[in-house]
Amino acid sequence: MAVHARVHRETVNIGVLGRTKAGKSTILRKVANQGEDVIPSGSDFPTTAARTRIYHSPDRREAVITLRTWEAFRDEYVQPLHTSAGLGAAPRTPDEFAAYSYPASVTIDSGTRGAGAPPERLSAQPFLVKLNQAQRSFPSYRQILLGQERVMTVPLASLRPYIAYPLDQNGVDRPYHAVRDVHIYCRFLVDRARLVLVDLPGAGEAGLEIDRHFLRDINNDVDLLLCIKKPIKDTVHHGTDDFEILQLAQDAGRDVRLADFLMMVVNRDADLGEGSFRNALTAVEAVTRPHGIEVLVCDATDEASVRDRLLLPVLDRLADRLADMDAMAIERMRGGLADLADEVGDLLSRVNRSAAEWRRVLPEDEDELYRQAAKLRRSLSLALRELYKAYEESVRGGTPIDEIEAAIDDAERRVREWAAQGYGVGGHSEWEAETVAAMATEPFREYERQLNGARHEITRQFQHIDASLHAAVDRLWGEVAAVLRERLTPDLVPDGPDALPRLLEAIGHLNVPAFRRAVERLAQLKKDYGSLFLRVATPIVIKVDLESWQARLMVHRAGAAPAPTATPSGRTGSDDEWWLDYEESAQPRTPGDAPVSPAPRPGAGWTEPAGLGTPADHTKNLAALLNSAIDEALGELTESLRRESLSITSVLAATLWVFWDGAGRTPDGELEYKKICGPYRTTIWPEVFDGSAAQLSGRMGALDEGVGSLAGSAATLQQALTGPAGA
């Protein structure tokens, strides 16, 4: 899953890691063009292990915050501090946490300590400080921690309290305790649309192991990791802490080369002399050079330096090595899976050898199993015949599919309501006012825009028709699965939408070609039938555009005089009555009503948008055109879809007949049902196979089934692994 996420991720993620005060936040601010309110510095960061990602977005300036639950806050924050402070188990509930008596400091009294006494070790003091801060500030974040909403969006100007300590060290407003993830959206220094900076909290935070906790969560979620180091006067060498950070980077990269995944960034301190800086750089290169790790040098306070000496080389590295890193991750995963497949093969060989010995002492009950399988096949065939007859009667009676009929009516009603309510604007008056204003400048474009809007609305409402077809197929699958489940038990045919695939999975290793073929053909019905909307509705909907109606108008004018102005209901009347006429025609119809007659053909109720008419004239012409186009499209759509619904009923009936014929009436079907039911005989026929010997036989059958299923999975895995690396 981790490798799949890496290969298919839609963004390029650059992780930034470094010790506190190494310049990490300064670099992030330069790249993201943000100030300290959005990306605070050093010691201002909270110790909540909140995952912060900064997205390049030219148009957005906001942050999306994912909140913790109380349970996550207790387990991931409070309990680690309790453990490090030697206080034992953390409070179980919010009220217990609020009332917990935390000591202000450790005690070094060597006397006998009672239960609940302060810790004796001085190293526990930082953890007590954090616990006291979290408890005192609990009212500032309790509501969002315990609320129903788990995601909130805030403007960048209001973000700071959710990611940093308050400026007042004694402040009690600390909502960052409730934050799990922060996604910041802003415009970067370099315009790369899918670039993401993953801000890893400063390493070394007391008690919480933020670095390891964070890197574990983002395993294979970072394409390249930047490790920031800032040599200062007292730390020019590569010390133990620096090696720990390198180890974290190696752990995060896992299946890719460290030299590809990691780049060291040395932040030049203006106060550090040239000689000292060269010594520090030499120390860093002495550690990184043997591993092929590239070292970049920049001044975090200089925008040009960050852009030219850091960001652009990083992007060059990604362009050069990203695909190779993905390929390496895939290849190492394939190697691990190949080893697993070999281990599975060895296990199955041992199991099969043992099973062969056990079968020698099993009792003979195959004759009774055959008789029971024959009875089961006859019962199943009869039940499938009755189900088929019900569908066949619907075909003979011309009864359409309920799910599709309801979906058609609902889509038509929604389109008509949309039109009657001002074509989505909010009312006739609002639509007329906006349209008159638009007609004053670009009448032709307004005709085209509003016809496009009508077409898109019809498409939006009718594209859900496919879901009704799928619901009808799901109903058929459910009815067949119920018939099978009643006779084969839920062990073979479980309840739920995946009953047939689960059945195929259960019989995958058995030699039952007729039954398997019948189930496979039935399970493929939804895929085989395709999209009802694309096949039936699309050719009608595409005609709702200005070009189509202009062409029809020209044909009309070439052959006859213009038709009289008409309303969508087919009536003629004064211009002042057009809206009332359309509202009347737009009322929803109930199933069984006669279809609305198509609107008058070319030229009815409107004239060409070009000409000397006033904006008000154009607006009335446009309304008549929209109403005619919508009425005509809805008339054709409902008629065609209902006709198609009847044909689909025939398809479902025919599919059911094919399944009945293949699963219930094939020659020698008893032999296949004997193989299918053998491992489940004690469950299907407990009154017949209820002895200990029969139970042992049934369990051996179940063992055979498990071995066969596992062998099939191992074979599939091996086959996949012998293909190309990208398969």
Q: What would the principal axes of the Cα set say about the shape?
A: extended
Low-confidence stretches: 554-612
The percentage of residues in β strands lies in: 5-15%
Q: Numbering strands along the chain, what is their spatial order in the largest sheet?
A: 4-3-5-2-6-1-7-8-9
**Share of helix, binned:** 55-70%
Distance between the termini: 15 Å
By DSSP (H or I, 4+ residues per run), the number of helices equals 26
> Taking Cα atoms only, what radius of gyration do you get, to the nearest Å?
36 Å
Number of strands: 9
Please tell me about this protein's structure.
The chain is an alpha/beta fold and about 725 residues long. The protein is about 55% helix and about 5% strand. It contains 26 helices and nine strands. Strands 4-3-5-2-6-1-7-8-9 form a nine-stranded mixed β-sheet, with helices on both faces. β8, α10 and β9 form a beta-alpha-beta unit. α3 runs antiparallel to α5. It starts with a helix and ends in a 6-residue tail after the last helix. About 35% of the residues are buried. About 10% of the residues have low confidence.
Topology of this protein?
Blueprint: H1 2-8, E1 12-18, H2 24-32, E2 51-56, E3 62-67, H3 70-85, H4 94-99, H5 125-136, H6 138-146, E4 151-155, E5 179-186, E6 195-199, H7 210-217, E7 224-229, H8 240-253, H9 258-261, E8 262-267, H10 274-288, E9 294-298, H11 303-359, H12 366-396, H13 402-420, H14 428-439, H15 443-462, H16 465-492, H17 499-506, H18 513-523, H19 525-529, H20 532-541, H21 546-559, H22 578-585, H23 615-664, H24 669-677, H25 681-684, H26 692-721
Parallel strand pairs: 1-6, 1-7, 2-5, 7-8, 8-9
Antiparallel strand pairs: 2-6, 3-4, 3-5
Helix pairs in contact: 1-11, 3-5, 7-8, 11-26, 12-16, 12-23, 12-24, 13-15, 13-16, 13-23, 14-23, 15-20, 15-23, 16-17, 17-18, 18-23, 20-23
